[in-house]
């Protein structure tokens, strides 16, 4: 899913599918979300004030939180940004490139999340 549904679209430089209970299900090469970052991200879906106050940290990079709710967290760093979407069992994390259209990138990740939710994940 990471390669075929996200990276091959050309919008993203890195992506991962993380388990809500911990661990990485799949990720692009050289994109490692630490256990601490994953735990903070998971908490951010439950209490959005945590990511609103301190931003989103992914693979050692801090993103300014633009929007956060119980399903989606969006962040930005310069011209690039992150899209994090929670499904029933997973969290999809995608980093869009500077120059990518954030709206197109967001639609891509949200559609993948809807598909995973529809299949029970």
TrEMBL record:
Molecular functions (GO terms): actin monomer binding; guanyl-nucleotide exchange factor activity; phosphatidylinositol-4,5-bisphosphate binding; proline-rich region binding; protein sequestering activity
Keyword Iron-sulfur among UniProt keywords: no
Alphabetical UniProt keywords: Actin-binding, Cytoplasm, Cytoskeleton
CDD domains linked: PROF (cd00148)
Stored InterPro entries: PFN, PFN_euk, PFN_sf
Major localization listed first in the record, in broad terms: cytoplasm
Biological process terms in GO annotation: actin cortical patch organization; actin filament polymerization; cytogamy; mitotic actomyosin contractile ring assembly; positive regulation of formin-nucleated actin cable assembly
Pfam families in the record: Profilin
GO cellular component, one term: cytosol
Keyword Zinc-finger: no
Subcellular location(s) of the protein: Cytoplasm, Cytoskeleton
Similarity comment: Belongs to the profilin family.
Name of the protein in its database record: Profilin
Source organism per UniProt: Melampsora larici-populina (strain 98AG31 / pathotype 3-4-7)
């Amino acid at each position: 899913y990471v390669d075929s549904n996200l990276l091959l679209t050309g919008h993203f430089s890195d992506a991962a599918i993380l388990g809500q209970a911990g661990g990485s299900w799949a990720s692009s090469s050289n994109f490692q979300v630490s256990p601490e970052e994953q735990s903070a991200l998971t908490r951010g879906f439950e209490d959005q004030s945590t990511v609103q106050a301190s931003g989103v940290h992914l693979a050692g990079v801090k993103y300014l939180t633009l929007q956060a709710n119980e399903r989606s967290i969006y962040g930005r760093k310069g011209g690039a940004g992150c899209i994090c979407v929670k499904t029933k069992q997973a969290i999809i994390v995608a980093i869009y490139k500077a120059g990518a259209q954030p709206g197109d990138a967001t639609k891509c990740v949200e559609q993948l999340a809807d598909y995973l939710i529809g299949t029970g994940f």
